[in-house]
Every structure is written in C-alpha cells, then in structure tokens.
C-alpha cells in the first residue's frame, strides 16, 4: 500500500472506467477519500449498494467540493456540459482530468469552462471492455495497459507528474502525446476498427438466414471478436465518431481504397497481390509479438511504441516520488 497521491478524488459519471479507477485506487491506497456523482438516481443507488465510492453525492457540485483531483468519466459528448456545471465549485490549485476516447474535442469543450486556478490534464486509458455501467468495473483493468496523458499548453508539469503517479499506481504504463497525434493514432487503432466491427455485425444481421443461432454457433474467433466489440455502448461510440470526425474519416477513406484494391484482386484472380498483402500484414502482427507485447488482450493501444529513453525503472521511480508527496 503506497501513500495517497491525492487526499480527495471526485469521479463524475460512474460507469466502467470510473468504477475501475475507484477499485484500482483502493487496491493501492492512492486516494484518501473518493466521492462520486452520476446523473441517474438508479446509477447512484447501484453505486451505494456495491460500495462504489466512499461517498456518492446527489449533485456534481457537492462531489467536486474540496477535491484535489476531479476526473470526468462521462461520454465525450457530455464533457463540456459537465465541466460547465462543476466549474464554479472547483478548489483552486486542484487538477481536472477526463478519460475520454477523443482528446482535441474534449479539450475544446472543457477548457473554456475551467477557471485559471485549476490545472487541466486530459488522459485516456487504452483499456476497456464492451461492458458499461457501475457494476462493470474491476481493479485490474489498467494493469500493464497504456494510459496517454495529453497536457494542454502551459500545464504545470507538477500537476502532470502527479496524475502520472496516480495512473502508474493503478497499474498503467503512462506516455504523453499531443491531442492531434492522439486522435489520429486512436482513429487507426481503435475508432476505425470499432466502426468496421459494427458494420460487419450489421451485415451479418442483414443476412437473416444466417443470423439466429448460426452466426454465433459457427463463428470463428474473428467474427466473435467483432460481435464483442459491436456490443459496446452506443452512446459512447456515437460520441467518439462525432467528435473525432476528421481523423476517422481520413482513416476510413484509406481503408476503403485498400478494400477496393483487394476486392479487385479477388475478382480478377490476382492471387499474387492477395498473397503479398497478407504476407505484409502477417509481418506486422509478428513484429508486435516479437516486441514482447501480449496480443491476446483486446487492446489496440499496444501497437504504440515506447519512446526512446523511457524505461520501466524510470517509470517506477517517478511513481514513488509522487506517491510520497
Ligand atoms: N468503455 C471503454 O472501453 C472505454 C471508455 N473510455 C471513455 O471513458 C468515458 C466513460 O466511458 P465508460 O465508463 O465506458 O462509460 P459508461 O457508459 O460505463 O459510464 C458513463 C457514465 O456517465 C454517465 N453520464 C452520461 N452522461 C452524463 C452526464 N451528462 N452527466 C453525468 N453523468 C453522465 C452515465 O450515466 C454513466 O454512469 C467515455 O468518454 C469513453 O470514451 C476510455 C477508455 C475505454
Ligand atoms: O474493448 C475493446 O476492445 C476496446 O478497444 C476497449 C477500448 C475502448 C475505447 C477506448 O478509448 C479504449 C479502449
């Protein structure tokens, strides 16, 4: 058990990510008191029933009162409204963060509402499941997964270092990245693949004669993975696509071009083109495995390289320093 990184943490939106953060913080003793707020009375009741948060509050204002760290864990499209609601109640010197899957749109929506007396350090854990809601979280979700920090210009490095210590304490490998790059990388590794999975499952469903039991019964692992991903929360994913439009459309455009090229190779019987293409993609997968990354876990973020100079030892050292302060 380490010393708390923050005395008081407030979680706004009590779903998969907030509940996983709560259990991960408790596991390592990273926070003194954790308050929580969710918009729906039903979610607040569930949270109280399962012991999610030390104190579940009736308003967002009450939850953030006196908090040293406030983490917005709501769908990307709701971040701005929540920031506006809590802004007058934030403690000067505190840090506001979020866990949204898109960064530039969240920075644009949240930043203008925050008083100059608070630090804004956006974050994104590259870990999740297709489940949502307060009962879906678990303490090990972030273990050995990347969390990306996206500090905005002029952010106090100490506020960033402290948040890094929290994520490392929750088991994550932390990297920093700018918002534009983040949104492009995630469009390739997570957002476009989700849209493709949604589409593939939709296509299978259109072929009614193979649906009912047959799709699942006879599906190989690939299609099963698609159905798992396509079971993800519709609100969350609607907001991701509406808020990472440019990067997602750019990647889907390239995807469509390649798909057409492969379609043509099939039609014309160009086996060499198909073979060469599959040989290249196989090498990419093998490169990931040789780099020592666990490819069984459904974590698209694992293709991100660790920048030169960052070592496990360095990471642990930073975590210890911050946790002690
Ligand atoms: N699900 C995943 O695998 C991952 C999700 N994220 C991001 O984390 C954030 C939260 O996602 P999850 O925890 O999966 O969602 P979730 O659906 O499990 O929980 C979201 C919570 O926010 C509440 N909420 C929605 N609108 C609200 C509002 N206006 N005011 C207050 N509460 C509101 C919902 O009632 C729910 O309790 C999203 O921004 C998502 O993009 C990041 C990494 C992984
Ligand atoms: O469940 C999966 O396969 C995921 O890809 C989880 C996930 C969803 C959204 C994110 O922003 C990060 C991770």
CA gyration radius, whole angstroms: 21 Å
Total tally of structural domains: 2
Any idea what the shape is? Answer: globular
- Taken as a percent bin, the fraction of beta residues is 5-15%
Number of helices: 13
Percentage of residues assigned to helices? 40-55%
**What is the fold named in CATH at topology level of the largest domain?**
Rossmann fold
- Describe the largest sheet: 6 strands, parallel
Mean residue pLDDT: 88
Structural class: alpha/beta
Encode the helix/strand succession as letters: EHEHEHEHEHEEEHEHHHHHHH
The H-level CATH homologous superfamily of the largest domain, spelled out, is NAD(P)-binding Rossmann-like Domain
Distance between the termini: 15 Å
Uncertain segments are 294-325
What can you tell me about this protein's structure?
The protein is α/β, with parallel strands linked by helices. It folds into 2 domains: 190 residues, NAD(P)-binding Rossmann-like Domain (Rossmann fold); 123 residues, 6-phosphogluconate dehydrogenase C-terminal like domain (6-phosphogluconate dehydrogenase C-terminal fold, Orthogonal Bundle), CATH 1.10.3660. Helix content is 50%, strand content 11%. The strands form 2 sheets. It has a 6-stranded parallel β-sheet with strand order 3-2-1-4-5-6, sandwiched between helices. Strands 7-8-9 form a 3-stranded mixed β-sheet, covered by helices on one side. Helix 4 links the parallel strand 4 and strand 5. The C terminus is likely disordered. Bound molecules: 1,4-dihydronicotinamide adenine dinucleotide (NAI) and 3-(4-hydroxy-phenyl)pyruvic acid. The site of 3-(4-hydroxy-phenyl)pyruvic acid has 10 residues, from loops.
